[in-house]
Amino acid sequence: MYQTIVTLKKGEGRTLKAGGMWVYDNEIASVTGDFENGDVVEVHDFDGYCMGAGYINTKSKITVRMLSRKKDVLIDEAFIEGRVRDAWEYRRQTIDTSSCRLIFGEADFLPGIVVDKFADVLVVESLALGIDRWKETIVDALKRVLAEDGINIRGVYERSDAKVRLQEGMERVKGFLGEPFDTKVEIVENGVRYIVDVEDGQKTGFFLDQKNNRAAVGRLCKGKSVLDCFTHTGSFALNAGAAGAESVLGVDASGLAVEQARENAKLNHLEEKVRFECADVFELLPRLEQGGERFDVVILDPPAFTKSRNSVKNAVKGYREINLRGMKLVRDGGFLATCSCSHFMEPELFAKTIREAASGAHRRLRQVEFSTQGPDHPILWAADQSYYLKFYIFQVVSER
Predict the structure, then answer these.
(1) 213 and 359: one domain?
(2) Residue 308's pLDDT band (boundaries 50, 70, 90)?
(3) Is residue 149 included in any domain, yes or no?
(4) Is residue 193 part of a domain?
(5) Residues in contact with 244: Cβ distance below 8 Å, sequence separation at least 6, in sequence order
(6) What digits encode the pLDDT tens for the residues 78-136?
(7) What amino acid positions are annotated as catalytic residues?
């Protein structure tokens, strides 16, 4: 089908054969045929067996990202639309689609691209050269498919400004795909209203992956005092307030995020009981402890402390420290919600780190809930990169 053939070394491609989506540069024996980076190529095992097709980029350590595991599949607009339809149908069955992730890269068999829907606006993040060629095809297909269900998209914004694009030999870009529109978009999630800044907010503007986890925490907050650390634009704090918390303090080191959180509190008429402070969480938690502050519910939703395997040891120290400090601030019998959004902080290591923090804080933990990212961020087994969020709720009790 394709003239360029990527052949694996004998004994390599074990992850690919187990269902993975990537071929690394050190797994390749040869590349035959003329090609440009970004082209679709066939991948063969060392013995000539066809393992499917994907797009190639020799500038990246991930040299091929697979699009299909079938032989003789034509990667064209009809193929892309089929992938888009499958992704939408899956979300219709599994999640509230008013605002959700529509395309989640490898987990939707469209590696290297993310598309989020915020009400009637789409935000696109393209991270790899090969999929960048199909970016507008994917967007057009999404518009058609959503329109069939009566959902009309009024604007599309691109947030392909992540540093990882540099590793692909690509520039970082952001801007409108089509006609300009107001980039402050109002959404409703779990009954809470937010203004999402799709132009200047973190990532695509809002973290949709914690939707169900925010609701789970909210169910524990009625009549309680709540501390929400790394609050960003206030999502956990506002869920707590909307659920009837007596008082909520949200903390974040970003002044811009805190201002947005305060605006979101006003939007929900919660500004009297949900307040926000701009501070470094690592510095604030010891001060609160020394001041005798205690809370019924403490929430720890930090940014990824590690984005590579090389920095995992330092990340462990960070997670251990904030969990230990957080536990000390929970009243006896209260609750701790804690999570890690780093793919490299593996589940077993995160659990071990929490256990060590509990020992250091002289607290006992009773697990209430464990979950991962929402179903609109599906975890594709054998594609480990799609599993990143680990989320726990514990009851925290004194040693007894």
Answers:
(1) yes
(2) confident
(3) yes
(4) no
(5) 221, 222, 223
(6) 999 999 999 999 999 999 999 999 999 999 999 999 999 999 999 999 999 999 999 99
(7) 341
